[in-house]
Design a protein that fits this description.
- A 4-stranded mixed beta sheet has the order 3-2-1-4.
- It has one domain: Bifunctional nuclease domain (Roll), CATH 3.10.690.
- A hairpin with a 6-residue loop joins strand 2 and strand 3.
- Helix 2 packs across helix 3.
- The longest helix has 11 residues.
- It is built from 5 helices and 4 strands.
- With 110 residues, it is of the alpha+beta class.
Length: 110
Amino acid sequence: MLLGEYLQSALSNKVAERPQTHDLMLHLLLGLDADISHISVIEMKEGVFFARIVINQAGPVARKVAEVDSRPSDALVLAVKAKRPVFIMPAVLDACEDMTETLARLRKQS
C-alpha cells in the first residue's frame, strides 16, 4: 500500500484485514498508557517537510510529554487514525507556494 492509500484509508475509516504499521504504533502507545496529543509540522528545508508527534504518557505521579521526530506523511496518518489535531508552524505556511487557484481549478474539473 502506498502512503497516500494509507491516508485515504484512514480518512474513510477503512479497517485492513491485518494491522498496518500505523495501527501497530497506535496499539503500542495504548499499551504504554500513552496517546498522541497532536502533530506539528515544524519546518521545511529544501522542499522537505519535517514533523513531530507529541505524545502524552500517564505516569504514577505525573504525565510525561515526549516529542518524536517523524515524516509528516506518517504523522498525518496517525493524526487521522487517532483523531488528533495537526498544527503547522507559520514559517512553514509562509514558505509554501499558494495553491488556491490550482485547487479551485481542480475542483471545477471534478
